[in-house]
Amino acid sequence: MSKRPVPSTDFYESNTNIKWIVLVISVLISAGSIYYTNVLVDQLKKRERQQVELFARALEYTANSTSESSSDINFIAQEIVYQNTSIPIILLDGGSGAIVNYRNIKVNENWKKERREEFLQKELNRMKSNYDPIEVPLRDPETSETFGINYVYYRNSFLLTQLITYPFIQLSVIAIFGFIAYLAFNYSKVAEQNRVWVGLAKETAHQLGTPLSSLMAWVEVLRDDPNIKNKEIVTELEKDITKLTIVTERFSSIGSVPSLKPENVVALVNNVVNYLRPRISSKIKIEIFTLSENIQAMIHTPLFEWVLENLCKNAVDAIGTSGTIAIKILRGSDNKVYIDVSDTGKGIPRSKVNMVFRPGFTTKKRGWGLGLALAKRIIEAYHNGRIFVKASEESQGTTFRIALNTISAEKLQAN
Ligand SMILES: Nc1ncnc2c1ncn2[C@@H]1O[C@H](COP(=O)(O)OP(=O)(O)OP(=O)(O)O)[C@@H](O)[C@H]1O
Ligand SMILES: [Mg+2]
Fold first, then answer.
1. How far apart are CA 341 and CA 383, in angstroms?
2. Ligand nearest to the CA of 363
3. Which CATH code is given to the segment(s) 259-414?
4. Which of 180, 279, 309, 319 is most buried, judged by most C-beta within 10 A?
């Protein structure tokens, strides 16, 4: 077991790095796209202002010119004044404040006069808040004396408005698409992982089955053999076969949909602890705390025992030489039972707390990083419960909490 093909801590670090790089690049692309559009918008704004100024000058010229230059006026009127078909404009009389004329504003001809005026006034207020007006002085053609002033108000053309909102719409569409693609990718990844988990477990159980039944037959042969005097060996062999049978059962249960039954959690915890006690250092104590000897929850026994074993083994590893493992069983409100497994071990660094349940995450030389991933799967997918790090303090210890249901999901729904 020299090489571990399972991803370790480095894998998750490089994975988070890739996520950051992708995020930074996306932000840069978005910022670049918005900046470039802003440059275009500024240029177009300047051009539109020039167009409106030209329009104002043309108006000034036509209003103030003498009758001799009427052919010029016609030319100017047609070429400039009517050329602008996109920028909404309102011409205001500076003296009375009345709207003299307007262009490129969609006013319904069927509206009543008041309605039309109200509409134009609203447009005007919008324009006033956008840009300063351009003045058109009115002069007497004969004396060149100024006798009044008109104001040209305008706002952005439809094209310019579209250009301003375009990058935001474009980026939102890309973001939504990216999010959906991410979800779809994640979903197929999870589905694939599930198939691997289930397939591998089923195959293991299947492969273990054949030698196991043959071993059982051999034990029977040995028991009846008069040449074997020391029958203790046979008893020990039987114990190991029982354990192997349990392991096979665990693997086969994870490969199918296990049915949950009401079980006494206290008794199950006692079973696991009794199994573990002779197998761990005598300097590590295991204590069980409970207010009642019978606390029921919906459980699949072989799988649940597997979880407890994994949690206790991790606790033993975290403790090292000597310490205590405390298992508390509590009946909670809302049809829940809590099992807290605490140790006095080295604790989990805050930055790693979120990673411990990921498959392949391990800090141990000979670890596979599968114990907690399996525990999470068993508790959440098979028991509809929850498992999480309730508390952890470096060099003080860790508490894992399992929450199980006291009644089945179907009954809960029926209630
Ligand atoms: N009680 C605990 N105290 C401190 N650290 C823990 C504890 N339980 C788990 N960890 C940390 O979480 C990691 C993942 O645990 P997990 O049981 O999934 O894998 P493992 O124990 O490393 O390997 P194995 O597959 O053999 O169980 C451990 O390597 C360890 O760093
Ligand atoms: Mg482990």
1. 18
2. 1
3. 3.30.565.10
4. 319
pLDDT, tens digit (0-9, with 9 covering 90-100), for 193-246: 888 888 988 899 999 989 999 999 999 999 888 888 888 888 889 989 998 999
- Give the ligand at the shortest distance from the Cα of 352: 1
Q: What is the pTM of this model?
A: 0.66
Average pLDDT over residues 36-45: 93
For residue 414, pLDDT over 70 is answered with no
The binding-site residues of ligand 1, defined as CB within 6 angstroms of any ligand atom, are 310, 314-315, 318, 343, 345-348, 356, 361-364, 367-373, 398
Helix (H, G, I), strand (E, B) or coil at 137: strand
What the block records as the tokens of 289 is: 């705390």
Question: Which tokens go with 402?
Answer: 């399992």
Give the ranges where 279-407 is alpha helix by DSSP (H).
301-319, 371-376
Q: Ligand 2 centroid vs 316 CA: distance in angstroms? A: 10
Of ligand 1's atoms, which has the minimum distance to the CA of residue 367?
A: 23
Count Cβ atoms below 10 Å from residue 203 Cβ, excluding itself. Answer: 12
3-state secondary structure of 373: helix
